[in-house]
Structure formats: structure tokens, C-alpha cells
Amino acid sequence: MRRVWWGLLLGVLLGAAGLLWLGLRPPPPSSGAVSPLPVTADSRIERGRYLATLGNCRACHTAPQGADYAGGRAIPTPFGTFYAPNITPDPVAGIGSWSADDFWRALHDGRSADGTLLYPVFPYTNYTRMTRDDSDALWAWLQTVPAAPDPNREHDLRFPFDQRLLLVGWRALFFRAGVFEADPAQDAVWNRGAYLVQGPGHCSACHAARNALGAPSPATPAGGLVLNWYAPSLTAMAEAGVQHWSAADIVTVMRDGKGPTASTLGPMAEVVFESLQHWRDDDLQAMAHYLRRLPPTVEPADGGGVRVPTRVVPEMQARGEGLYRDHCADCHGDGGEGRTPAAPPLAGNRAVQLASPVNAVRVVLHGGYPPGTAGNPQPFGMPPYGVQFSDQEVADVLTFVRGAWGNAAAPVSPEDVRRLRGSPLW
Fold first, then answer.
1. Of the four listed, 16, 266, 273, 330, which is most buried by Cβ atoms within 10 Å?
2. Which of 15-29, 310-324, 411-425 comes out lowest in average pLDDT?
3. 143 near 89, Cβ under 8 Å?
4. How far apart are the C-alpha atoms of 184 and 288, rounded to whole Å?
5. Measured at the alpha carbon of residue 381, what is the angle toward residues 379 and 385, in degrees to the nearest 5?
6. Are the beta carbons of 386 and 364 closer than 8 angstroms?
7. In which element (H, E) is residue 224 found?
8. What is the DSSP letter of 336?
9. How confident is the model over 206-239, as pLDDT tens digits?
10. DSSP codes of every residue in 130-190
């Protein structure tokens, strides 16, 4: 019996040692890979500025009314609230005492200058794909940002997620450092788009499904909740898959925030405003080329909403139809056909019919506005109804819209609305 216990103990110790090694192992040496982004006549600093735009770095690292890149923005997650750090060249509050090697280690391996493991809310799981040359260019540009002395704020996380030591196990299970390697079976445009989407653009940081530990979950090809909005899947045809779109339509929506069949709202509108509208056209074209060729997947079967008893749905739909007629039909049409360019059609609208009702509820409560861009300088938007409508009324009108004119989405419950009304906008 003692031998059995000693064997079990030895197995546990060996397993723990293996996880510790996997979680703390040094990253592989730099491969010297060449960035798929073409080298232009721009200086290294100008290239770094553009890479910061590609990565939308300012959006996360700048608090409302705060100094650029001085940190402090709250990032709500299921594990608690993270606060983005100061990445200006201030030597005390920021990263002014770091070297280019330290910065590369953070992007590539998720470690701070002193070796502290970084939480993956900083998407180093994507940035690890970036080449050393691009990391160095981004670092060179950050040195030109005005230094700000704003101190970093401690994260406010629930137990046990506030125990940073657990990142050792998380990294062992879910993270492998590695620079992007071009696929020789694909053309240069596809590889350029793949690098942008997988690396600096870090699209999967929002649009990938996550497991209970916040790690990407390939077995569940859906989007997920990000900043209290639902980021739809980029592979599911019923969500945000664009395999059936033209490249021109994809570029228009990404650049202008609004296109013939779609608009961007919420956090995605911010991404367009801060980042995508400033991308070079050939990079937008490369991204569209790559996204159109993503293997399509089926949409998730359940958005996780509260179930509505079947017997009350007809009553909700009847009340919702009256609310729609009184408050919505003037813009969206009696048959949900829309009034372009002011109001999009609701009939057949896949954003309205997402399995998750989160975005539809948020738009009714708080309004929805595409970003102001060069291609959409005076965006039309939807006013908020959160003060005017009760939780039941919001649920009623959305239950009607999600089931009318051929739409076939699940009803929305007042509990869904109540939960979302009390959460931060983002």
C-alpha cells in the first residue's frame, strides 16, 4: 500500500513539475522571420506608429479624458476588472526603464521586464505572432510618446483569479509562443491578411469563443462577451462570417463603419474609429481576402439567455408589435424593411437574430451609433429607449422583432434586460 501512495505522490509531483516547466519555460529563440507587411520608405518610428494603429493600442491604454497611453482604462471581464497599464516612456510609472528586449518579451512571451507573468487580457497570445522587427519598430515609436506620470492601478479580480501564480498553469495548458510563419500553400495577400488578423490586429482576442478559464476554445466556434457586448463569430455564417460578401463590402464596413448590409456599433465602432479607418487600403484588402477564406462553421445553438415560457411568447409578441408600430416603424418600416441610409432593415438582419440577445438589448437600452469616419461623416444612429421602456417592454419589442418577417430568433426575457441594464455600457 505504501508503494501505491508513494507512486501517486511521485506522479503528482512529476505532473506539477511538468506544468511548472511548461508555464515558465523560456520562449524559443527569435527565428528572424520577416514581417509579411511590406517595408516602405517610412522610418522605423513611422512604421511603429502605424503598427500601434493596427493594434488599436491607444483604445485600451488610454482612460477617458486621460493622457494618451497613460493607462487606467477599466476592462470588465468575467474574472473581475483589469486596468490597462501606463506604456508611456515615463521611467517610474510607464515603461521608460525598459529595453527593446524587455518590450519584445512582453509581446512575444507575456512577461514584464522583471519577469512577472502578464495576464492574457493583454493579448500577447496574439502579439506573439508579431516579428521582432515589428516589435522593435513599435517600441521605437512608443519612445516618442509624451511621458505621463500616471501611476498604474491594481486589478480588481475575484479569487482565485487574483493569484498570479496560477498563470503558470494557464500558460502550460493554453499558451505557446511563436512568431507567424507564412503558409507556402497560400498567396502573399492571404499571408499578409493572416498576419494582420492573427497578430497586430488581434481579432480573435474578441471574436474567439472562450472556455471557463478565458482561453480560446476551438471546439466552440462562436464569439463571446467582450466589454459587456457580444463579439460575434467571424466564421459562423449566421453571425459575422463574411465568406459570402465581396471584398469591397468588407473593406467598406471596416473602413467606414457602415456598408450596404451592415453597421458597426458598440466596441466595434470604437475599433473602426480608432484603428480600422486609418489602415492602408492594401492592408484592408489583405484582411478581407483572408476573412473571406476562413472555413465556415455553424452558429452556436444557444446564446445563454434566460428561457421564456412558451405560453407567454404570443402575449409578448402582441405587446411588442404595438410598441414597434408606435416607436420603431417610422424608421425601420412597417415590414422591417428599413429606411436607408438612416435605419437598417430588421427583416433578415443577422445581428438582430444572434443567438445571444445582448447586443440587441444594449442598442434598445442605450442607442446605437456607427462611428464618424471619412466615409460616413454624419452617421445616423438610434436613440436610447432605456428610460422610456421598462424591462418588460424592451423584452416585448425585441421578442416581436426577432420573430417577425421571417426572423426566427429566440424570445428575450425581462431578466435578460434587467441584467444588462445594470451592467456598464463598456
1. 266
2. 15-29
3. yes
4. 19
5. 165
6. yes
7. strand 224-226
8. S
9. 998 888 888 887 655 457 778 889 999 998 888 9
10. S-HHHHHHHHHHHTTSPP--PPP---EE-TTTT-GGGHHHHHHHH---------TTS-HHH
